[in-house]
Design a protein that fits this description.
Layout: H1 2-24, H2 26-36, H3 45-90, E1 95-109, E2 112-126, E3 137-147, E4 153-158, E5 160-161, E6 181-183, E7 188-197, H4 198-204, E8 213-214, E9 236-245, E10 248-258, E11 264-268
């Protein structure tokens, strides 16, 4: 049926081009009438059929030319649109996950060192293909989701940029301004993911209190950073990180797992 419909469309295109040539063949009729009236000699039937045949041939050529011109115009339009989209894409930020790693840091509360935390972090970099003003990513926020080995979602939270200020003010003071950071062209920023209490591990071994804890700005309001809702049950997790801003909506994933002596294994996924 599709082939029949295409054949019908082709025939109709040829007929639309052939009609003017049929009208043009009136020239042959006039020549023939002139001969019958004795105005000139016998022109021959070959002239008539020659014009008709030439008309049919030209009709097929013109219908092909119209279709080719249409396809060429469509292709040029697609190429122009693709070029415009590339210009737009080149003018956007390009945030990539550079690497994931762990780092041991001193945890201080009220000016007193309370523990050594082994922190899981993800490093992001802005690597645009051009150097336009819009290639800078402004007010980027992170949404972090934790999944168990079976793919079940166990926690969603706002991410914390490592170089942001620790929220030391009372809990009713908004921490929203701390959630954003700007990525200049070529700039890198680290995102806190989770931690383990290495000090506890050194004293008591790998027990429940040395388990993995999700880490963001909320943790600093709790003793030894252990916000109850952020304590992760288990020893291996997949993390999905979504970075959001104007011209930015990108998701990355990584894995981390508990190891002996308070260590943490990490890997992008």
């Amino acid at each position: 049926m599709k082939t029949l419909a295409q054949f019908t469309d082709w025939m109709w295109a040829v007929i639309k081009q052939w009609i003017p040539w049929v009208g043009g063949s009136a020239f042959v009729v006039i020549v023939d009438w002139g001969h019958r009236l004795g105005a000139w000699g016998e022109p021959g039937k070959s002239l008539f059929w020659g014009v008709v045949g030439l008309g049919f041939f030209m009709s097929m050529f013109l219908s092909w030319k119209v279709e080719r011109d249409s396809l060429t115009a469509s292709k040029l339009q697609e190429e122009s649109l693709a070029a415009k989209l590339k210009v737009i894409d080149d003018a956007k930020p390009r945030l990539i996950l550079r690497n994931v790693y762990t780092e041991k840091v001193d945890a201080n509360q009220n000016g007193i060192r309370v523990m050594v935390a082994n922190v899981v972090r993800a490093k992001f970099e802005n690597t645009p293909s051009s150097n336009y003003p819009n290639n800078e990513a402004k007010q980027v926020i992170a949404k972090v989701s934790f999944y168990d080995p079976n793919g079940n979602l166990i926690l969603e939270m706002d991410g914390r940029w490592t170089d942001s200020t620790q929220p030391l003010a009372p809990h009713w003071v908004s921490r929203v301004p701390l959630l954003e950071t700007d990525f200049r062209i070529g700039a890198t920023h680290d995102l806190d993911i989770a931690f383990r209490d290495v000090t506890f591990t050194q004293v008591y071994g790998d027990g429940p209190q040395a388990g993995l804890v999700a880490l963001n700005n909320d943790n600093f309001l709790f003793q030894r950073w252990r916000k109850p809702e952020h304590v992760l049950a288990g020893d291996r997790f997949t993390v999905k990180i979504r970075l959001c801003a104007v011209w930015v909506n990108t998701e990355f994933s990584m894995e981390f797992w508990a190891m002996p002596n308070g260590e943490i294994g990490v890997s992008p996924s």
